[in-house]
Model the fold of this input.
Amino acid sequence: MEDGKTKRAAGVLLHPTSLPGRFGIGEFGSEALEFVRFLEKGGQKIWQVLPLGPAGGGDSPYSAVSAFAGNQLLVSTEKLVEEGLLDPDLQEHPRGPVDYPTVTEIKMGRLREAYRRAKPGDDFDEFRERHAHWLDDYALYAALKKRFDGAPWNRWETGLRERKPEALARARRELAEEIRFHEYVQYRFFRDWEAIKREAGASGVEIVGDLPIFVSHDSADVWANQRLFQLDERGEPTIVAGVPPDYFSETGQLWGNPLYDWARMREEGYRWWVERIRMSLTLYDSVRIDHFRGFEAYWEVPADEETAAGGRWVKGPGREIFDALAAELGELPIIAEDLGEITAEVEELRDSLNLPGMKVLQFAFSDPENPHLPHNYGYAGGNWIVYTGTHDNDTTAGWWAAAAPEERSFARGYLGKEYVTVRGLIRLAYSSTAARAITPMQDLLGLGTEARMNRPGAAEGNWRWRLEETELTDELAGSLSDLARTYGR
Done:
């Protein structure tokens, strides 16, 4: 990240699904543009989002069914109405958390109606041609998922599972209209997001994206690139990804993602990763790689294990993959998510690439040597980006309510007991030497555990929180602007 050691900035972490709006989920319409205007008024230079791909199991943006495609639920309903592709008297949804089954059913029906009415022109054809390297496989995968009632790809008929040319050709003929529908939805997604990103850029707001290091087994990526993953002859993973026991779980986290065949990826010049990062850098100005430490070493778990505790560390590709990426793409505006069990080797890889790392204040209050405490960031702040919390943490108010007595005692001594509030911790982040300070929207509003975005290890009930329209006030923007100006952000 260019000038990461000197450029001071502040921003907000908010996934677009959490935006307010009339149709049950945040979309790339007026609500997103209004949020950009709020950031600009608040002196905020960063909007950090979670992955924008089509969510898979548990509605998680981190288990997308494609590493390249966009989430169809984010397509702007407003714009479809404005263009005459939907009737203007659409039923609105109740305000409140996202009800994914209901929203998905209604939204997909509306997208199909808009597609039936649409008359795509040359720009649609140009989009299809420009993105063919991933769109062809993704649209066919999505059409086949519908044909097989949602069954994972390795439960499809043999010819399609093994991608026999004649089976694929037949499916493309038989499902041509359904394939074109999914191509059209992607065209709408990218067109809508590009408009938001342009507005953000014009307002001086950088978009920071999020890229999970691993991909879902039941995804277009694994189906189309089986040779690049460690699978058996039936297409099942032989080993899967996770993390060892940590702050979030006593038995670790068993993610279940198939692991890459790094030797094969190396033989192919890391081409799949080059295209993945290239796509990410069209969506975002910079990108946070979730679980960066997996490039140095990753936690490998036999696929038949019930928890992650029985795994082991295995060496990853290290710097070699980043050199291959830089050779193709030039400077890499990447943020390293370096939380969890971080070794000297991981730090050496991060620092040799001059990548910003993360500090989280909720992890800080244990002892004076804790690296998340601001006095340990160094005089220049290095490349650090400090957060009050992340999408995996409780809100700061919720964290404080449940904090251990020793954490409370240390925090009171560090901040002064009268300053141990959510606002006090936000001020601590802004006043630190870290180059960037990012605050989840829930913390800016002082919300409790009820507003938590994700509980790691919980399969259901996550990713549902949404803003109320009345919460993006001029008063809040003004206080953020004052804070940013006071601390040179």
